[in-house]
Amino acid sequence: MNVLAIVGSARKGKATDLLVDKAIEGVKSARPGCAVKKINLIDYDIKYCKNCLACRDSQTEGPLAPCQIRDDMEHLNEDLLKSDSVIFGTPVHMGFATAILMAFLERICWTFAKPGRRVLTVSGIPSPRSDKRRKAVIIVVSGIVPPIYRIFCDKATPLIRGTIRDALNARTVGHMYAGAVEHRGAEYYYDKAFNLGRKLGQ
Asked: How does pLDDT run across 137-150, given as a tens digit for each residue?
């Protein structure tokens, strides 16, 4: 089992990073032999999508359509292809995922998906290019807003869940919202993150 942990925070060693580490511990407790790779997106050169649609319109039969942009997404795409399970961690900025994670999600959409599904009257909805099934968990962190107000603050979780379903064929088996960490501290959520990772590994 290959697990890829993706951290969308610009700050290493802070709440999001620490909670992803706890989730990794949970995965390893359930699957001692699993291989885990953790990437901090801030360490990579990820350019924004130019909407040229070359990936969307690609006729490739493979699991990955070529992108016209040459940057570190080429390496990250290879990591995603190898993954069986994925951990996503991001702070919420103005209620949404961070800009760096948004750039990452935009870049994987049509490289890993093709316009195949039809929903109601709309055709061309993204569907995975690959039949490989993955599992995922999502960790969202807010410095100020407590969990009781999550509904007003967390637009990141449904966005990530929908994108990875359509592009990576990934089923989200669990998610958590770590709220008000500036007051509570990340430690308050360590057990929850560990158990989330353990669920992913089972």
From this structure: 999 999 999 999 99
CATH number of the CATH domain containing 22: 3.40.50.360
Q: Which domain holds residue 32?
A: 2-201
On whether the CB atoms of residues 114 and 169 are closer than 8 A, the answer is no
What's the chain look like in SS3? CEEEEEECCCCCCCHHHHHHHHHHHHHHHHCCCCEEEEEEHHHCCCCCCCCCCCCCCCCCCCCCCCCCCCCCHHHHHHHHHHCCEEEEEEEEECCEECHHHHHHHHHHHHHHEEEEEEECCEEEEEEECCCCCEEEEEEEECCCCCHHHHHHHCCHHHHHHHHHHHHHCEEEEEEEEECCHHHHCHHHHHHHHHHHHHHHHC
- Compute the distance between CA of residue 141 and CA of residue 9 in angstroms, rounded to an integer: 10
CA dihedral 19, 24, 25, 31 (to 10 degrees): 150
pTM as predicted = 0.95
What contacts 183, CB < 8 A, 6 or more positions away?
none
How many domains does the structure of the chain reveal?
1
